[in-house]
Fold NodB homology domain-containing protein.
Amino acid sequence: MKKKLIVIASILLLIPCLVVGASFFLKSADVAKVDKKTSKQEPPRQQAPKQASEHKIAYLTIDDGPTKYMSAIVAALKKENVKATFFLVGNNITGDRKQAVKEAAQAGNSIGMHSMTHDAKKLYKNGQFIPEMEQESTLLNSLLGKQIKLIRAPYGSTYLSAMQIKNAQEKKYRLLDWNIDSEDWRHKGKPQEIVTSIKEQLDKFHKISPVILVHETEDTLKAIPSLVKAIREKGFELMPYFEDNDFHLNFRKDPDL
Ligand SMILES: [Zn+2]
């Protein structure tokens, strides 16, 4: 009788232990599941997160190509595992350079328009800004099979007339200016100075994303490895900028541009 009681008591004691043990096991299984789910939901690297304050994103924009350096710049970026945004002059997209533009797009870089002529008089005084962008958009579409809406206005969006702004908005163009000017023309032949200039300016950026302006030159090509290193050391991740990005940056401070 005593023995039977001991057995029953032991069983009774064992039940809570089993319950606690089972629930612990299930919980840890849940955690594992959540972990797996979270890692799956992480956005791929090339997708630009919405706010710089959350992720510290920087954009490297390379203007005035395609030049003879474009292919090498695309390869240098690839080697560093980063992507940039190229603002191209339509009249330069000829011959071999068409292939370079295709390669840049295929590698995940963003391609934007920078007018056909880059001629301030034609674009702003003679009102050719929108017609030139339309022409370039058609040209890029035939090359890349993609309707591109991203624009960098030569010399900045400051020069556009109210009518041109209105037309750009009607056409759903996105105008991206810049907030870090490398002044690479000033440091011609000295790529390390270009890197230093950008590095110093990066310290001012805590809340909004830096949009760095360089030009498609041999200096930029040479600067890429140390520039990427410097940007990473400042805690930024480089992303290409596409027209559907929620982050707007233009000198007119227009949220619809
Ligand atoms: Zn330019």
